[in-house]
Amino acid sequence: PEVSSFLHSKKIQLLATDHLNKDLPIQSFVCDNLVNFYNGRFIVSEIDGYDCEHLWDAIVDSDISNSLYTKLVHLFPFLKEKAQYAWSNVVAVSSDGFPLIGPIPGKPNEFLNVGFAGHELSHAFISSGIILEYLQRGESSLPGAKLFNPARFYK
To answer: Which carries the bigger pLDDT value, residue 27 or residue 141?
Structure first.
């Protein structure tokens, strides 16, 4: 099958606060994968339900920003009027939500390393290790290699 039958473009939009007081009692956390506190900023994001027809759609949607702001202030009332930045991007998401890392069945020496839904950096080490093992040995025994193998869509 064509990759487009199981890999889709989704719009992701984020809202972030300015740097906050360093005396906050927390250093970092993740709440439901959509609200993060990192490096002195709260970041709230939305990805589900925003299919994109364009490969590049970086226009910030004010309705989504308002929804993200409401969510942020509901969870953390002390952040009222602290949201400073909003941005948007398009990310690739697979039909089952897992990235595709590994060889393309029936296409020797062709590999996929896509579909991270905006979590590329958190998967960078494992995905590079999986691809490296496939290149060196023709298989990978690393955690996630079977789960992320593109062959799951080629049955």
So the answer is: 141
